[in-house]
Amino acid sequence: MAVEVRIPTILRTYTGGEKAVSGAGATLSELIDDLETNHPGIKDRLVEDKDGQDDLRRFVNVYVNDEDVRFTGGLDTSVDDGDQVVVLPAVAGG
Amino acid sequence: MLRIDQEIHDAIVAHAKKDHPDEACGVVAGPEGSDTPTRFVPMVNAASSPTFYEFDSHDLLALYKDMDVRDEEPVVVYHSHTATEAYPSRTDIGLAMEPQAHYVLVSTREHGNNEGPVEFRSYRIVDGEVTEEEVVVAAPEKS
Description:
The structure holds 2 protein chains of 2 kinds. By secondary structure, chain A is of the alpha+beta class. Chain A has one domain: Ubiquitin-like (UB roll). Chain A has helices at residues 28-38, 42-46, and strands at residues 3-6, 20-23, 47-50, 53-56, 60-64, 67-68, 84-89, 92-93. Chain B has helices at residues 6-19, 57-69, 90-95; strands spanning 2-5, 25-31, 39-43, 53-54, 72-81, 102-107, 119-126, 129-133, 135-138.
């Protein structure tokens, strides 16, 4: 079992064009590290350094089972086998 | 070139006028790979701002799941500028994440909520590079 991660068009260059990949980890943070080992470069598109700590990029939305992780603990959000994670860049501008 | 139906064009303009002086935003979805915008989906500007727009995060997820089920993609991503010209701002360029989309900009600076012409322009935004393209508004099909 693993966690399915849905990848947006803009990041499919890191997944060989795949719309969904699988990963493992107990938290979103671990899951992203696991993705990075198989799809190098993807982590930097999801996470940025904020005051010496990793944080989700402001204009990247991540959902675990349809819940925006900003409301469930951010990178510390727990994930479980069988969960579905969706990554979507914000649609925003000025 | 962006080819868009008169009806959808008018719906985008009407949305921009209604939300003025705040920015209006939305997408026109279409069958994946078709480059044809067919389904008008106005979105709420969660920022409710005259200088910024952002789709609400839950609406965004619902939109993409819906498009996924229908084998659609966002063919057009539109928003309005309410005090400046219909040209992508630096923020627009930095946050443009749909390389296959036509980014439509409408400016309501001249007539606001009232009747009157608006600027309606379309761009490709890929890797920070903006290319304006022709907009062809197709008349409704006669039956």
